[in-house]
């Protein structure tokens, strides 16, 4: 049998910002497409007008672009199977709902919301759950329980109706999931889900299955929360006579809270200080801001690597994968069944690794951008690169480059009191005064020149080097942190070093 071209889709509903679980679904779809030289499609599922949130669609597209998971077809990307936004496809679906009614696989229901509500309450009072399905449907207000005349009369008078799927209670629905294997369910236990609503719009189920068919989707990869919809979707393919074109299904395991107890939520992110959305999101109603990976300083490559390992693993020790390497290595067989815990420390670790891999020259611009926002002029690009090389290893994010190197750009005004207490005394004060005179006479502050000459001076003078170096660091940095003191001196340059020592001698005068 010839293999089908791989066509996969990411089909989010624009109901708010995209959770990282959604971005992972997009990623796995993208990877399967790339691996098989297939097509990755973005379809916007906005049939539920009540849940529409302005800006969400743009947010989804921007997130995909940021992560480098760029669709080949879809809303804002074009393609031959459009339109790709379901609200623009509204006119397509009615025909398919009608087709199912005609073949006896669906029926019209005229029950009012009040009637259904009453039924639900009656059942509840008997500690039972009302299910609109094969056991009760014949007795309700629908086309199965009325004459042809009555039905025609209702339809022509414009009475509001919905179309429901009619499950055959005798049927056992057999589903195959690429991750979970075979799953069976008895159709008699299922409710006759609404396919078409009184507002003239299809429900998610009808639109989703019809569009997957029309767009020739070969694999449906989505979150496990959609597994309960699978029996209906499989039954719909059968009812339409589309079994030959039915996609293969893969339901991805959940992303769990760091402690493994339940699904990762925005609240977990707020509590643990990590984002759960790719980009920052401002809620259009409340104005509340939710943090994003991009704004928190994550590189898109790191974010993609983090997401890939939530559910998938390569079966080897390798942890760092570029998008191109992932596209090579990915397979659905290596996606596990059980949920994966989100580990915020591991997320930082990934970003740290990607930061280390960036050439220093590439980090000059992002660090200079931080400086210019603070009104600080950057140093020469040679010195900027040197600073970056000195502090990079202690940094996880670009912003850490700034916090680790602040003292290069801002002369200390204050001195860490703890360090002063421990390291500053009459002896180092007097020794520093002599050292200052020695340094004034030095022409070359290159670390490889200055280091041996200062050391031999210290030796000649019989100063103890440790305490003096600590005090010198306090003068130059204002604290006890930072890279090697001679590297610092070289970048600051002679004038600045002398000035900083003079300042400290003045401000930390010993009476
Ligand atoms: N619109 C659904 C969602 O928001 C799509 C589920 C699917 O991929 O079938 O996740």
Describe the secondary-structure layout.
Elements: E1 7-10, H1 20-35, E2 39-42, H2 56-67, E3 73-74, H3 90-102, E4 106-109, H4 113-125, H5 148-156, E5 162-165, E6 172-177, E7 181-186, E8 194-196, H6 204-214, E9 219-223, H7 230-240, E10 248-252, E11 255-256, H8 266-272, E12 281-282, E13 289-290, H9 300-308, H10 323-329, E14 340-341, H11 344-357, H12 360-373, H13 381-391, H14 398-409, H15 417-423, H16 426-440, H17 447-461, H18 465-477, H19 485-492, H20 494-507
Helix pairs in contact: 1-10, 9-11, 12-13, 12-14, 16-18, 16-20, 17-19, 18-20
The site of glutamic acid has 9 residues, from helix 6 and strand 9.
Model description:
This protein is mainly α. Among the domains are: 88-207, Glutamyl-tRNA Synthetase, Domain 3 (Glutamyl-tRNA Synthetase, domain 3), CATH 3.90.800; 266-357, Glutamyl-trna Synthetase, Domain 2 (Glutamyl-tRNA Synthetase, domain 2, Orthogonal Bundle); 359-400, Helicase, Ruva Protein, domain 3 (Orthogonal Bundle), CATH 1.10.8; 411-507, Arc Repressor Mutant, subunit A. The protein contains 20 helices and 14 strands. The protein has helices at 20-35, 56-67, 90-102, 113-125, 148-156, 204-214, 230-240, 266-272, 300-308, 323-329, 344-357, 360-373, 381-391, 398-409, 417-423, 426-440, 447-461, 465-477, 485-492, 494-507, and strands spanning 7-10, 39-42, 73-74, 106-109, 162-165, 172-177, 181-186, 194-196, 219-223, 248-252, 255-256, 281-282, 289-290, 340-341. The strands form six sheets. Strands 1-2-3 form a three-stranded parallel β-sheet. Strands 4-5-8 form a three-stranded antiparallel β-sheet. Helix 7 links the parallel strand 9 and strand 10. It starts with 6 loop residues before the first strand and ends with a helix. The model has no long low-confidence stretch (mean pLDDT 96).
């Amino acid at each position: 049998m010839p293999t089908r071209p791989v066509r996969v889709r990411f089909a989010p509903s624009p109901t708010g910002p995209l959770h990282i679980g959604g971005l992972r679904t997009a990623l796995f779809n993208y990877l399967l497409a790339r691996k098989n030289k297939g097509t990755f499609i973005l379809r916007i599922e906005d049939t539920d007008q009540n849940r529409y949130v302005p800006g969400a669609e743009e947010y989804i597209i921007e997130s995909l672009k940021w992560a480098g998971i760029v669709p080949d077809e879809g809303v804002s990307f074009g393609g031959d199977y459009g339109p790709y936004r379901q609200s623009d496809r509204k006119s397509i679906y009615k025909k398919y709902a009608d087709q199912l009614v005609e073949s006896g696989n669906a029926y019209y229901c005229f029950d009012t919301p009040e009637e259904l509500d009453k039924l639900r309450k009656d059942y509840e009072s008997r500690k039972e759950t009302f299910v609109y399905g094969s056991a009760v449907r014949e007795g309700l207000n629908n086309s199965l329980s009325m004459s042809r005349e009555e039905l025609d009369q209702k339809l022509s008078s414009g009475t509001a109706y919905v179309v429901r799927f009619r499950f055959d209670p005798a049927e056992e629905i057999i589903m195959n999931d690429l991750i979970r294997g075979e799953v069976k369910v008895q159709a008699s236990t299922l409710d006759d889900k609404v396919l078409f609503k009184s507002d003239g719009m299809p429900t998610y189920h009808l639109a989703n299955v019809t569009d997957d068919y029309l767009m020739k989707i070969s694999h449906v990869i989505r979150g496990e929360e959609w597994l309960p919809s699978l029996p209906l979707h499989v039954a719909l393919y059968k009812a339409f006579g589309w079994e030959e074109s039915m996609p293969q299904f893969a339901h991805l395991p959940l992303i769990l809270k760091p402690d493994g107890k339940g699904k990762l939520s925005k609240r977990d992110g707020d509590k643990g200080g990590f984002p759960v959305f790719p980009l920052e999101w401002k809620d259009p109603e409340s104005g509340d801001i939710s943090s994003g990976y991009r704004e928190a300083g994550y590189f898109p490559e790191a974010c993609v690597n983090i997401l890939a390992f939530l559910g998938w693993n390569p079966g080897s020790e390798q942890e760092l994968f570029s998008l191109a390497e992932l596209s090579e290595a990915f397979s659905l067989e290596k996606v596990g069944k059980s949920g994966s815990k989100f580990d915020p420390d591991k997320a930082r670790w990934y970003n740290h690794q990607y930061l280390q891999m960036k050439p220093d020259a590439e980090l000059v611009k992002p660090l200079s951008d931080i400086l210019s926002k603070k009104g600080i002029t950057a140093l020469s690009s040679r010195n900027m690169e040197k600073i970056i090389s000195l502090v990079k290893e202690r940094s996880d994010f670009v912003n850490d480059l700034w916090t680790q190197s602040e003292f290069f750009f801002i002369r200390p005004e204050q001195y860490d009191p703890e360090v002063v207490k421990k390291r500053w005394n009459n002896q180092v004060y007097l020794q520093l005064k002599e050292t200052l005179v020695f340094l004034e006479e030095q022409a070359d502050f290159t670390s490889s020149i200055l280091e041996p000459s200062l050391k031999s001076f210290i030796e000649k003078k019989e100063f103890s080097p440790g305490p003096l170096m600590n005090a010198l660091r306090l003068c130059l940095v204002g604290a006890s942190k930072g890279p090697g003191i001679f590297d610092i001196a070289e970048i600051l340059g002679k004038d600045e070093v002398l000035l900083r020592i003079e300042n400290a001698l003045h401000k930390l005068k010993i009476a």
